[in-house]
Specification:
By secondary structure, the chain is mainly α. Among the domains are: 76 residues, no CATH class; 68 residues, Orthogonal Bundle (DNA polymerase, domain 1); 59 residues, AF1531-like domain (DNA polymerase, domain 1), CATH 1.10.150.280. Helix content is 46%, strand content 3%. It has 13 helices and 4 strands. A two-stranded parallel ribbon has the order 1-2. The longest helix has 26 residues. The termini are far apart.
């Protein structure tokens, strides 16, 4: 009886006939094959276990939101432009201070929160001879919104109403002309009111009002002598008609003011920086007299500046 041969017996014998590798070579082939299989397994595993990159959407969402807000603002501006050509966007308010709209510079208008388009309307009004005589005149400008007027109204350095002295014509005989001159409140009078005084024309009146704006107001009548075109003779003539309304003077809070706000004819810019830097290093001032202890100005200069400073 023939014995049954195991499977693959003929195949094994066939391979042995053509096996030309030594034992060490066969061992190397096995190891190399094992390494290749391991690498293939690792590569396949990495394909399924590749870590997903974490995407941060916060910045993207923020950018999209800003874009949507800009798009909405543009839509509002386009609609407003169709409604009226004089539509003015609401400006951003930087700060508020006492001001006279007749003498305010462009930069200070912008500081108050007035936009460039609104400023252009104001300048056009003034170029045609327009003058703000009362606070109500400022409200009449169509470019100024009710909200802006209510916010700025307490700081407008103009009276609520005014009555003018009737001028004496050349055909009329003046009777005791000096008694017909109304008193002038130095910190509230407009240029036209200053011109009612003897020796005061348009040039001197404009210079007096402009210097008042730089100072923040007059504390003494003699401060008019700081103006080059006002001399002792002119001052002696107009002094009887002047009233110093010092309560209207605009004061600077040295605990909150920056270098820009500390601009004043009686204070050099370099000293303003010292005042602000000292406050930042040592804290708020307890009184105005603390400025004197810094030793940065002469006593006479300090006394001139002191009435314009305050501590809150």
């Amino acid at each position: 009886m023939n014995r049954k041969k195991p499977p693959f017996q003929n195949l094994r014998n066939f391979l042995k006939q053509y096996n030309i590798f030594t034992a060490s070579e066969r061992k190397g082939i096995v190891i190399l094959s094992a390494v290749l299989l391991l690498l293939m397994f690792v590569l396949a595993a990495l394909k399924y276990y590749e870590p997903q990159e974490k995407v941060v959407f916060s910045e993207l969402d923020k950018t999209i939101k800003q874009f949507q807000e800009l798009k909405r603002a543009d839509s509002i501006a386009i609609y407003s432009g169709k409604k009226t050509d004089t539509a003015i966007s609401k400006p951003v308010v930087a700060e508020v201070f006492r001001f006279n709209p007749n003498t305010l510079t462009d930069s200070l208008w912008l500081t108050l929160g007035i936009s460039e388009k609104q400023l252009a309307v104001i300048r056009k009004y003034q170029s045609k001879g327009g003058v703000f005589r009362t606070r109500g005149d400022f409200k009449k400008l169509y470019t100024i919104s009710t909200e802006q007027y209510e916010r700025l109204h307490p700081f407008i350095d103009l009276p609520d109403s005014i009555s003018y002295v009737k001028k004496v014509t050349a055909h009329q005989q003046p009777v005791n002309r000096e008694k017909s001159i109304a008193p002038v409140y130095m910190n509230a009078a407009l240029e036209l009111e200053w011109q009612q005084l003897p020796q005061i024309g348009e040039g001197r009146a404009a210079a007096i009002v402009a210097y008042r704006e730089k100072l923040g107001g007059y504390f003494h009548i003699e401060q008019l002598l700081d103006i080059k075109i006002i001399n002792d003779t002119v001052l002696d003539v107009i002094k009887p008609y002047l009233i110093v309304d010092a309560f209207r003077v605009r004061k600077i809070n040295i605990n909150t003011a920056g270098v820009f706000e500390l601009r004043h004819p009686y204070l050099e810019p370099s000293l303003a920086k010292v005042i602000v830097n000292y406050r930042k290093m040592h804290g708020n001032y307890t009184s105005v007299e603390d400025i004197k202890t810094l030793g940065i100005m002469r006593d006479e200069d300090y006394e001139r500046l002191r009435p314009y400073l305050k501590v809150e």
